[in-house]
Amino acid sequence: MKKALLILSVLGMGVVQTSGAAVNTISNSTLTYSRANISNSYGSSQNIYSTNSGAHVSSNDEISRAINNLSAHAKQKEYQLATLTNRLYTKKQQQQYGSVPDRNSAPAIAAARASSVARSRSSGYCARYVRKALQSAGYEFRPNPSAYQYASRGTLSSAGFSKISNDMQPQVGDVVVYDRSSRHPHGHIQIFDGGDWVSDFRQNSISPYSGAYSYTTWRDSQYVDDASNRGIYLAMADK
Q: pLDDT of 172-210, one tens digit each?
């Protein structure tokens, strides 16, 4: 009996004991349990358990079963919540990985154009080649004389691109812009064709330089999940 009372107390039920006739009462909004020690000719005691629906039980075993039923119901709700959370997470992942441009999309068209005219080695006109590739896919913007200005002047942003983290896995149509430096006063711009980074030539890696230089990565905003994720990407990129 003490064990049952302890469990009910943990479940948030109030416990009140009166003096004299030793009547213990446990109650909440859904059930009431009382035990009255009644001395009679048989020296017996009586257990009364009732719910708002009017059901009655008369043994500690039945009280324990009621407690077990409540516990099982709570575990079932916990399982349902965990299942729902997992389904939402899975759906979010599917949306993220499903937002990849198809071959008829603007990013894919621009990348294919750049790839088809890329040289085997640099000609020094990366900005011209990438600009023409983007414009052939329908992106509208005013051309810049230098590659780095496509990021610094907000050209890519106004054309419909969003800056994302440099740590994101590249996808077709992503554009990378290298900032200018003393050795490279015009910077550099390139686009990912799904396999390689290309500009005016097909590059061996993401960097056209032998040293380390700062750059930003841009993606067509239609293929960035949502505004909150863009904020996360920006925060990561600014580290």
A: 999 999 999 999 999 999 999 999 999 999 999 999 998
Contacts of 30 (CB under 8 A, 6+ apart): 51, 52
Backbone angles phi, psi at 170, to 5 degrees: -70, 145
pLDDT score of 156? 98
Task: Extract the runs of DSSP E, i.e. beta strands, from 39-158.
Answer: 46-51, 56-57
Q: Enter the DSSP assignment of 140.
A: -
The DSSP symbol for 38 reads -
How far apart CA 216 and CA 84 sit, in angstroms, is 37
How far apart CA 175 and CA 220 sit, in angstroms, is 9
Strand partners, 57: 49
> In this structure, what token pair is assigned to residue 142?
């005013």
Two tokens, residue 68? 């077990």
Rounded to 5°, the CA angle 185-186-188 comes to 120
The pTM (predicted TM-score) of the whole model is 0.56
Distance from C-alpha of 138 to C-alpha of 130, rounded to nearest angstrom: 13
Round to whole Å and give the CA distance between 215 and 194.
Answer: 19
State the DSSP code for 221: G
User: Residue 218 above 70 pLDDT?
Assistant: yes
